[in-house]
Specification:
Blueprint: E1 4-8, H1 12-24, E2 28-32, H2 35-44, E3 49-53, H3 64-75, E4 81-86, H4 91-99, E5 104-107, H5 112-147, H6 152-164, E6 171-174, H7 181-190, E7 199-203, H8 212-217, E8 218-219, E9 231-232, H9 234-237, E10 241-246, H10 253-265, E11 267-269, E12 276-278, E13 281-287, H11 291-296, H12 302-308, E14 311-314, H13 325-339, E15 346-347, H14 349-357, H15 363-377, E16 382-383, H16 399-403, H17 410-424, H18 429-436, H19 440-449, H20 454-458
Parallel strand pairs: 1-2, 1-3, 3-4, 4-5, 6-13, 6-14, 7-10, 10-13, 15-16
Antiparallel strand pairs: 8-9, 11-12
Helix pairs in contact: 2-3, 5-7, 13-15, 17-18, 18-19
Length: about 450
């Protein structure tokens, strides 16, 4: 969707210059020669960014007219990303403008790349805020079911998160795949002092080694071959908000060193820039890996571990909170029923018993998928036990089979388990990863290591 930028300046040549520049980057540009006209446009148009000159012909030095404009949009309850501009370099004026709601400050004459970078940055932040508001609405609907629990294990976790949410403490969420660690991180953000800031989530296991710094810290145009424009990194996108680093256990040692520096000092540089920036973010992390074992094996840095685990919380698996299985199933049943516009559906007692007796290797995520299939295949007003399509062969081995497993080198055993999981799931990577208790990216790396072809095994 094309973003709209409003330029407020009483000098036509300044407005024209900004208009030409922004139009080249496919922004829709609207011009206003005074704050009064700008206020009218804000009331009647959807505008993403406002470039506001602080000084006008009536008062060319104090910035009073610009400050009055900021005050007026606040009175009118208008939500706008305002970047203030002035040819008079004044730290005091910039501070006043920021206190009154401006999001950033730009000196005139501006550098074109700086102007474009700011507009891109705040357009992206605006998108994140909208996503966060939408997610918060969805989260509010699910908290009663997913986060409030009848089990002692989960209740303890929620109480811990409530106590620390208002702090800026770094949290490390540990637990199996599908236990809801991302939802818990969102819960912490929405109940923190940073709730109005962005929530930025990064799957650390999905970032290639060569793009790690670019993804996290951003890069300048021309920093490397494919850097055709400036890119804002995740730390900058999460400014004054929360940065959630998921699958932190998948980082290589060199990536860990680069991350450690910014966590220790709060400072980083964009790739291709010598300008040091400061990260004002709260860090939340999650992993299903055994970090203590990784430290013992030299795969994870001790100093990074202690930097991340100011508070370490173990998220229980679904079979450790069995009291919640039925209520969660009923929640997901209603959620998917509403999504697919199906008739009212209820679970029979036999269906509930079947759900409670299953071991749920994929945890809450698997339960959601199972209930979605029930909704799609429902024939009638109730879900019976036979309607719940749980694969009994999702277990790798029966107790008898496990007793017959031969002793073999660890690497060979790992290779055989991966092959067996892929066979059991007919080559489904997500299901295989859930069975093995690892992430999909970890499974792909191990398949590459052992030269395993899922199509040969899963066919």
């Amino acid at each position: 969707m094309t973003k709209t930028v409003l330029i407020v300046d009483d000098q036509p040549d300044v407005r024209m210059s900004a208009n030409f520049l922004l139009s080249d980057y496919n922004y829709e540009v609207i011009e206003a020669e005074s704050p009064q006209v700008a206020l009218y446009l804000l009331k009647n148009r959807s505008i993403d960014i406002v470039l506001l000159d602080m000084n006008y012909t009536h008062d060319t030095t104090s910035g009073k007219e610009g400050l009055t404009f900021l005050e007026n949009i606040k009175k009118e309850n208008i939500v706008a990303n305002v970047i203030v501009m002035t040819a008079w370099s004044s730290t005091e004026l910039a501070v006043k403008a920021m206190k009154m709601g401006a999001c950033d400050f730009l000196e005139k004459p501006w550098e074109n790349q700086r102007l474009i970078q700011l507009v891109k940055q705040y357009c992206k932040l605006d998108e994140l805020k909208k996503e966060n508001r939408a997610y918060k609405q969805r989260l509010d609907l699910t908290q009663t079911n997913v986060l409030e629990s009848h089990s002692a294990n989960m209740t303890k976790v929620i109480n811990q998160l409530k106590r620390v949410a208002q702090t800026d403490a770094t949290l490390l969420l540990l637990g199996e795949n599908g236990t809801g660690k991302t939802t818990l991180a969102q819960y912490v953000h929405q109940n923190s002092a940073r709730y109005d800031g962005p929530f930025v989530s990064v799957n650390m296991g999905a970032i290639p080694e060569t793009l790690f710094e670019s993804e996290l810290f951003g890069h300048k145009k021309g920093a490397f071959t494919d850097a055709k424009s400036d890119r804002i990194g995740r730390f900058e996108l999460a400014h004054r908000g929360t940065l959630f680093l998921d699958e932190i256990g998948n980082l290589t040692l060199s990536q860990q060193a680069k991350l450690l520096r910014v966590l220790e000092t709060g400072e980083y540089e964009m790739v291709g820039s010598s300008k040091t920036q400061h990260a004002d973010v709260r860090i939340l992390c999650a992993t299903n890996a055994n970090l203590q074992a990784m430290i013992q094996n030299g795969e994870f840095r001790t100093d990074l571990y202690f930097r991340l685990n100011t508070l370490e919380i173990q998220v229980p698996s679904l079979n450790q909170r069995s009291e919640d299985i039925v209520s969660l199933a009923e929640f997901f049943l209603e959620k998917h029923r509403s999504r697919y516009h199906s008739e009212e559906l209820t679970l029979t007692e036999q269906a509930k018993n079947k759900l409670k007796s299953y071991h749920w290797p994929g945890n809450i995520r698997e339960l959601s998928h199972v209930m979605e299939r029930c909704v799609l295949l429902a024939d009638g007003e109730s879900i019976r036990a036979e309607d719940i399509l749980i694969k009994p062969n999702m277990e790798l081995n029966t107790p008898q089979e496990r007793e017959q497993l031969p002793l073999m080198p660890i690497e060979k055993a790992e290779c055989e388990l991966i092959k067996l999981a892929l066979k059991k799931t007919m080559g489904n990577i997500a299901d295989s990863a859930d069975i093995l208790g690892i992430s999909q990216s970890q499974l792909y790396r191990r398949m590459e290591k052992y030269d395993i072809n899922k199509f040969e095994l899963g066919s």
